[in-house]
């Protein structure tokens, strides 16, 4: 097998680089020191997997060069600089490393908070750079008893809360997407009313950057805040509207701001840097040795797993979250993909629509069923180009309608899944179930009730139900030197029958022609899974 290439686009810890260098099945290129135009022009086209940090945007320019790329590993949490829909269209799995830098970001937030209340960098510079000893100039305030508002109470926000508790602060969390007990169990207040946050002495934000959170704190919100409020942002530039922040800091409405992140980075020319009531750092939230080491190791291991096609840990655009999938569902996903693939092979014609159905508890996973069935159907025409990430995008581009339906569970089976495929040549419906947790079976093809193990090479022979047909089919197989390993028969009420014949060898065109020439034959097709 040829080696897979992993390109490291930004600086990561040496331990991660060592893991990549020591894997004999991986070709590894460290392009972290290359200028971005050279990275895109020369290295990204070689990559099977790319490791990025916040300095490399996965945007149109990146994706245009990422012809071979199957996965991008963002060595950090925030993926606001990764075009996830664009990546999905190209079949690129986007993964992040969600918790390895949590503590680093939490501690930097506390650093900014403490630095703001004690104007720490200004006192420090006054003594160190100006050699001035004027204790009367540097009176700060205390965190104790101050009201802290935390926007976004996830990994980082909640841990900031815990640390702020140790400083005896009075804390309130705003995060509509969590169970309030996540805050109240820590003896931290929880509010659904954003105004409660605006009434705080210190506000810190820890949400992702997205259309809902950009500019979440703007001019109007700042106007409602206490005079002398302190704002901290160690999440993403732009969550606080930067013009409004600037205005508030200049007018004195905002006493201090602790800022690690900017709308546009690097930000060496930003007007915030001219003010003397800000503490600033150049996006250092993740910059501790511990965090960088952990992130690099996890990013390298995950990139290798993805390059080898073994696993996609923390994938953000896959239809299923591996760790959340109940065991009983996996064989159904596999089965519905096989059913999709079978349907496309039997009909062998331009696909118009894919209708996916499920009955029983498995129907809770209908969305994933739809993706797996679509992969199965499109694999017939697109082979390796189709995967779980791009399947529905590709179907949409080809005007293939995908519908999903939960059916009443009246089949007698605990679960039943099915695909109705409509093509230019007609329609086929195939349904299946799983016995004993693992045994996949096709139980219906159109109106025929069957019991077929969907594997190997199969011939689907539909005929008028007259005597001698099975004998003729057997004879033709024997004449063509094909061994029959399984033979299943279904009959319908219209005096027609369907035989599904599993054979050991390859099905040749001549054999199919001979079967088609039998008088009783209505149709013949073959498929291999
Ligand atoms: N400065 C730096 O170097 C670093 C910055 N970050 C940033 O911090 C952010 C948060 O990281 P984590 O806590 O690990 O993520 P997380 O996913 O654990 O937490 C984010 C929280 O924000 C909440 N949220 C989402 N939309 C919201 C809204 N409209 N209002 C209120 N809450 C909302 C979510 O429910 C979630 O609980 C990341 O998205 C990343 O952008 C993360 C690590 C380092
Ligand atoms: O080190 C980085 O790339 C920035 C870390 C960060 O902002 C994140 O993980 O979201």
TrEMBL record:
PROSITE patterns: ACT, D_2_HYDROXYACID_DH_1. Pathway: Amino-acid biosynthesis; L-serine biosynthesis; L-serine from 3-phospho-D-glycerate: step 1/3. Residues 458-529 form the ACT domain. It comes from the Bacteria. It is an enzyme of class 1 (oxidoreductase). Its EC number is 1.1.1.95. It catalyses: (2R)-3-phosphoglycerate + NAD(+) = 3-phosphooxypyruvate + NADH + H(+); (R)-2-hydroxyglutarate + NAD(+) = 2-oxoglutarate + NADH + H(+). InterPro entries: ACT-like_dom_sf, ACT_dom, ASB_dom_sf, D-isomer_2_OHA_DH_cat_dom, D-isomer_DH_CS1, D-isomer_DH_NAD-bd, NAD(P)-bd_dom_sf, PGDH. Pfam families: 2-Hacid_dh, 2-Hacid_dh_C, ACT, PGDH_inter. GO terms for molecular function: phosphoglycerate dehydrogenase activity. Keywords: Amino-acid biosynthesis, NAD, Oxidoreductase, Serine biosynthesis. Catalyzes the reversible oxidation of 3-phospho-D-glycerate to 3-phosphonooxypyruvate, the first step of the phosphorylated L-serine biosynthesis pathway. Also catalyzes the reversible oxidation of 2-hydroxyglutarate to 2-oxoglutarate. Belongs to the D-isomer specific 2-hydroxyacid dehydrogenase family. This is D-3-phosphoglycerate dehydrogenase. It comes from Sulfurovum xiamenensis.
């Amino acid at each position: 097998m040829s080696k897979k290439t992993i390109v490291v686009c930004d600086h990561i810890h040496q331990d991660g680089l060592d893991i990549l260098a020591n894997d004999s099945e991986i070709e590894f290129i460290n392009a972290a020191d290359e200028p971005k135009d050279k990275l895109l022009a020369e290295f990204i086209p070689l990559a099977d997997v790319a490791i990025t940090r916040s300095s490399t945007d996965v945007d149109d320019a990146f994706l245009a060069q990422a012809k071979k790329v199957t996965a991008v590993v963002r060595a950090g949490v925030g993926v606001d600089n990764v075009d996830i829909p664009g990546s999905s269209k190209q079949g690129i799995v986007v993964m992040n490393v969600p918790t390895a830098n949590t503590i680093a970001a939490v501690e930097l937030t506390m650093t900014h908070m403490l630095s703001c209340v004690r104007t720490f960098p200004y006192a420090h510079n006054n003594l160190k750079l100006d050699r001035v000893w004027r204790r009367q100039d540097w009176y700060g305030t205390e965190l104790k008893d101050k009201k802290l508002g935390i926007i976004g109470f996830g990994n980082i926000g909640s841990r900031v809360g815990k640390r702020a508790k140790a400083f005896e602060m009075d804390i309130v969390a705003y995060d509509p997407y969590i169970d309030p007990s996540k805050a109240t169990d820590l003896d931290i207040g929880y509010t659904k009313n954003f105004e409660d946050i605006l009434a705080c002495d210190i506000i810190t934000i820890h949400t992702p950057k997205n259309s809902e959170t950009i500019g979440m704190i703007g001019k109007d919100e700042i106007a409602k805040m206490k005079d002398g409020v302190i704002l901290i942002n160690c999440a993403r530039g732009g969550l606080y509207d930067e013009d409004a922040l600037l205005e508030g800091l200049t007018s004195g409405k905002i006493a201090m701001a602790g800022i690690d992140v900017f709308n546009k980075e690097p930000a060496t020319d930003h007007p915030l840097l001219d003010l003397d009531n800000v503490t600033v750092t150049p996006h250092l939230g993740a910059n501790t040795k511990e965090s960088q080491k952990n992130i690099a190791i996890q990013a390298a291991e995950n990139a290798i797993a993805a390059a080898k096609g073994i696993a996609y840990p923390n994938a953000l655009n896959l239809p299923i979250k591996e760790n959340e999938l109940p065991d009983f569902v996996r064989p159904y996903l596999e089965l519905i993909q096989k059913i999709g693939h079978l349907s496309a092979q039997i009909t062998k014609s331009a696909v118009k629509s894919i209708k996916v159905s499920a009955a029983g508890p498995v129907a809770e996973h209908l969305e994933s069923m739809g993706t797996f069935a679509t992969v199965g159907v499109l694999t017939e025409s697109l082979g390796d180009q189709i995967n779980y990430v791009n399947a529905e995008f590709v179907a949409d581009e080809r005007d293939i309608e995908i519908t999903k339906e939960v059916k009443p569970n009246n089949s007698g089976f605990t679960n039943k899944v099915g695909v109705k495929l409509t093509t230019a040549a007609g329609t086929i419906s195939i349904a299946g179930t799983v016995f004993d947790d693992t045994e996949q079976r096709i139980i219906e093809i159109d109106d025929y009730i069957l019991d077929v193990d969907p594997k190997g090479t199969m011939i689907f022979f539909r005929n008028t139900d007259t005597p001698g047909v099975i004998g003729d089919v057997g004879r033709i197989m024997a004449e063509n030197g094909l061994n029959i390993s399984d033979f299943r028969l279904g009959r319908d009420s219209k005096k027609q029958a369907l035989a599904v014949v599993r054979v050991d060898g390859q099905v040749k065109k001549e054999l199919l022609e001979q079967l088609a020439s039998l008088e009783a034959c209505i149709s013949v097709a073959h498929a291999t899974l």
